[in-house]
Design goal:
The chain is an alpha/beta fold. The chain is built from 20 helices and 14 strands. The protein has two domains: 197 residues, 3-Layer(aba) Sandwich (Rossmann fold); 236 residues, 3-Layer(aba) Sandwich (Rossmann fold), CATH 3.40.50. The strands form three sheets. It has a six-stranded parallel β-sheet, with helices on both faces. Helix 1 crosses helix 3 and helix 12 packs antiparallel against helix 13. The termini are far apart.
C-alpha cells in the first residue's frame, strides 16, 4: 500500500530518506523552512553532494512520487505519516542537543493534523524527546488523533542511499499497535529484503542511536590512542588494526587511525549523550574521555604538521588535500580540517587547499586561505602537503610529479593512504599516523 509521507527538513537525512521512501513507491512531500533550498530542489538542483542522489531525485520527481514545498500545513493535512528530520546541533554553551528545531516542527505539525497521523522523529534526539513532542502536539491541538514514534536514522553521508536501502537494521520506538502497522507499511519494501525491523519502546529507540554513535566514536578514539603508542614503541597501527579486526568480536570497521573523528553526528552526539548521563546521575565516563581525547587530538594535528616542517611554519606554504570530514560528501560540520587550518594560520603558515566537493562549504568557514582546482596546483611550490581527507582521487596521485612541483617534497599523511616505501622512493619526507617503525618516526627524524 502506498502511503502519503511528509518529510520535514530536507537536509542530508530528510532529502535522502524522503527520496528513498518515494522510490519505495510512497508519495512523498519534502518540506523545508529554507525557501531557497526548496526552490533549488524544485528546479532539479540538489543542494548537497551525495553520490547518486541527483538521479534518484529526478526519477522520482518525474514519476510524480516526490515533490518539494515550504507549505508544511497543506502537506501535513494530507499525510498518513510525518517524519521530523530537522537538525539537532549542539546547544551553544552546554553541549546538550538543541531541540528547538524539533519542537518548532512539532508545533507546526500539530496545527495541521487531520485524521490519524503517525509523527515520527527521525532526527537524533535525547531520551525523552518523544514524550515532549507528544505533549507539545497534544497541548497545541487537543483534538488531534496521532501517535509519536522514534525512528532514528543510521545512514552515512557518502553512502547514504545504499545505507538507506540496505540498512543493518531499522529501529522503531513505539508500542502502539496502530503506529506499528503504519511503520511496517512504510518500510515494507525493506522487510522483503529481510532487513530487520526492530520494535522497541520509544525511549529505548532514542538511546540506541546515541549508544551506537558513542560506541563507534570510542572505537575510532581507541585506535587513535593505539596509533600514538605505536609511534612511541616502533609498531605499525595498521597491522595492529588488522590483527584485532579479524577477531569477529571486534570487527574491522572504524579501526582506521586518523586525525580524530568529526562530522555532523559523532561530535555533537557524544557530547549530548555525556550530558544525558550527567543529568541522570549515571555518567558515561568512557564517552566523556572519548570526547576529551578526540578534541585534543584534532588540535594536536596542526602541531604534528609544524613538527614535520622542522618546528616552524611561519611564512611557509602548506597545501591541504581534502577539507570535508570524510570523502564523498561536501559536509564540513566539525571537520578535523577546521582545527588544523586554525592551528596552522595561528602559527603563521600560508594555506592553499583543494577539496573535490567541499570548497563552497569551506568558503563559508575559513577566512584567509587560498583554494586550488586540483591536488597538483595546490601543491605547487608548497613546503608541505597535508592529506586530511582520503578522497579516492588522492590515492592515485602521481607522487613523483607532486614532489617535483613542491618547494620541499614533504607530506603529512593523516589517513595513512600512502606506503612509506613508495613515498621514500618518490623522494618525500613522509609522516603518517601510527606507523612507528616505517612512517612517523623515520620521517620525524628526517625533518
Ligand atoms: P541538515 O542541517 O542537513 O538538515 C536539516 C534541515 O531541516 C535544514 O534544511 C533546515 O532548513 C530544516 N529545518 C529546520 N527547521 C525546520 C522546520 N521547522 N521546518 C522545516 N524544515 C526545517 O541536518 P541533517 O544532517 O540532515 O540531520 C538531521 C538530523 O538527522 C539530525 O538530528 C542528525 O543528528 C540526524 N542524523 C544525521 C545524519 C547525517 O549523516 N547527516 C545521520 C543520521 C542521523
Amino acid at each position: 500500500m502506498s502511503l502519503k509521507i511528509v518529510m520535514i527538513g530536507s537536509g542530508y537525512v530528510g532529502l535522502v530518506s524522503g527520496t528513498c521512501f518515494a522510490d519505495f513507491g510512497h508519495s512523498v512531500t519534502c518540506v523545508d523552512i529554507d525557501a531557497e533550498k526548496i526552490e533549488r530542489l524544485k528546479q532539479g538542483e540538489i543542494p548537497i553532494f551525495e553520490p547518486g542522489l541527483d538521479i534518484l531525485v529526478q526519477s522520482n520527481t518525474e514519476a510524480g512520487r516526490l515533490s518539494f514545498t515550504t507549505d508544511l500545513a497543506t502537506a501535513v493535512s494530507e499525510a498518513d505519516v510525518v517524519f521530523i528530520a530537522v537538525g539537532t546541533p549542539s546547544r551553544r554553551g552546554d553541549g546538550h542537543a538543541d531541540l528547538r528545531y524539533v519542537y518548532d516542527a512539532a508545533r507546526s505539525v500539530a496545527m495541521s493534523l487531520k485524521g490519524f497521523t503517525v509523527i515520527v522523529t527521525k532526527s537524533t534526539v535525547p531520551v525523552g524527546t518523544g514524550d515532549e513532542v507528544d505533549r507539545l502536539v497534544r497541548e497545541t491541538n487537543p483534538e488531534a488523533d496521532f501517535s509519536v514514534v522514534s525512528n532514528p536514522e543510521f545512514l552515512r553521508e557518502g553512502a547514504a542511499i545504499d545505507d538507506f536501502r540496505r540498512p543493518d537494521r531499522v529501529v522503531v520506538g513505539t508500542t502502539e499497535e496502530r503506529a506499528i502497522q503504519v511503520i511496517q507499511e512504510v518500510y515494507r519494501p525493506l522487510s522483503l529484503n529481510e532487513a530487520p525491523l526492530m520494535f522497541t519502546d520509544r525511549r529505548t529507540a532514542e538511546l540506541i542511536k546515541y549508544a551506537g554513535n558513542a560506541f563507534l566514536a570510542m572505537k575510532i578514539t581507541f585506535i587513535n590512542e593505539v596509533a600514538d603508542l605505536c609511534e612511541k614503541v616502533g609498531a605499525d597501527v595498521q597491522a595492529v588494526a588488522r590483527g584485532i579486526g579479524h577477531d569477529n568480536r571486534i570487527g574491522k570497521k572504524f579501526l582506521h587511525a586518523g586525525p580524530g573523528y568529526g562530522g555532523s553526528c559523532f561530535p555533537k552526539d557524544t557530547l549530548a549523550l555525556v550530558k544525558t548521563g550527567q543529568d541522570n546521575e549515571s555518567p558515561l565516563r568512557l564517552v566523556e574521555t572519548t570526547v576529551a581525547v578526540n578534541d585534543q587530538r584534532k588540535r594536536a594535528m596542526a602541531r604534528r604538521v609544524v613538527a614535520a616542517c622542522g618546528g616552524e611554519v611561519r611564512g611557509l606554504t602548506i597545501s591541504l588535500l581534502g577539507l570535508t570530514f570524510k570523502p564523498n560528501t561536501d559536509d564540513m560540520r566539525d571537520a578535523p580540517s577546521i582545527s588544523i587550518v586554525q592551528g596552522l594560520l595561528d602559527a603563521g603558515a600560508r594555506i592553499r587547499a583543494y577539496d573535490p566537493e567541499g570548497t563552497s562549504q569551506a568558503k563559508k568557514i575559513f577566512d584567509g586561505i587560498e583554494y586550488a582546482d586540483d591536488a597538483y596546483s595546490a601543491a605547487s611550490n608548497a613546503d608541505c602537503v597535508v592529506l586530511i581527507t582520503e578522497w579516492n582521487e588522492f590515492r592515485s596521485i602521481d607522487l613523483h610529479r607532486l614532489g617535483k612541483l613542491m618547494a620541499t617534497p614533504r607530506l603529512v599523511d593523516l589517513r595513512n593512504v600512502y606506503l612509506p616505501a613508495e613515498m621514500k622512493a618518490a623522494g618525500f619526507q613522509y609522516t603518517s599516523i601510527g606507523r612507528g617503525s616505517s612512517g612517523a618516526a623515520v620521517a620525524d627524524k628526517a625533518s
